[in-house]
């Protein structure tokens, strides 16, 4: 029940967040094109992630899925919340992030140990949450992970 409630909150907040808070331009690429990138590249990794999870690219929210790829984070509700803790540890600050962390902490108190671990992993990585990943799609995932000290979640 709580997973359903959190997912509904996300669905209700996604469109206004995209429209009013995300100022970046959509990437204008589809997941089929991503599958034509070299196998170890960030572009291919993103396409593979989208296909594997039966997702489509969400305009202006592409970076979110890139973080999943770089950190190897799953897509369950508590893992999504954990990823926000990771990003908080990596230096990201936004109203949306605070809302997810607050609601996640309230709804998933038994996952607090996992959330703290994710925060610490984000803190150990060099800040990268602000990068324009659309210009990095040809770079290899391992080289990005090594450069920014990203440990798989």
Provide tags for this entry.
153 residues, mainly alpha, 8 helices, 59% helix, 0% strand, Ubiquinone biosynthesis protein COQ4
Summarize the structure.
The protein is an all-alpha fold.
Spell out the blueprint of helices and strands:
Elements lengths: L1 H20 L9 H4 L7 H11 L9 H10 L5 H13 L5 H13 L4 H13 L16 H7 L6
Describe the structure.
The protein has 153 residues and is mostly helical. The chain has one domain. The protein has eight helices and no strands. The protein has helices at residues 2-21, 31-34, 42-52, 62-71, 77-89, 95-107, 112-124, 141-147. The chain is globular, with a radius of gyration of 15 Å.
Tally of separate domains: 1
The tally of beta strands, per DSSP, is: 0
Task: Give the fraction of residues assigned to helices.
Answer: 55-70%
Class by helix and strand content? mainly alpha
Order of helical and strand elements: HHHHHHHH
Q: Which shape, going by the Cα principal axes?
A: globular
Protein name: Ubiquinone biosynthesis protein COQ4
């Amino acid at each position: 029940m709580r997973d359903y409630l959190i997912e509904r909150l996300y669905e209700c907040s996604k469109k206004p967040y995209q429209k009013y808070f995300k100022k970046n331009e959509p990437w204008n690429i589809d997941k089929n094109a991503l599958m034509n990138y070299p196998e170890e590249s960030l572009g291919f990794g993103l396409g593979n992630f989208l296909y594997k999870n039966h997702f489509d690219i969400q305009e202006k929210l592409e970076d979110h899925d890139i973080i999943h790829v770089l950190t190897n984070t799953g897509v369950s509700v508590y893992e999504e919340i954990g990823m926000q803790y990771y990003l908080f540890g990596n230096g990201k600050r936004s109203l949306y992030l605070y809302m997810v962390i607050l609601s996640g902490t309230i709804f998933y108190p038994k996952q607090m140990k996992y959330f703290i671990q994710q925060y610490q992993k984000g803190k150990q990585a060099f800040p990268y949450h602000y990068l324009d990943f659309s210009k990095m799609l040809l770079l290899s995932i391992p080289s990005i992970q090594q450069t920014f000290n990203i440990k798989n979640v």
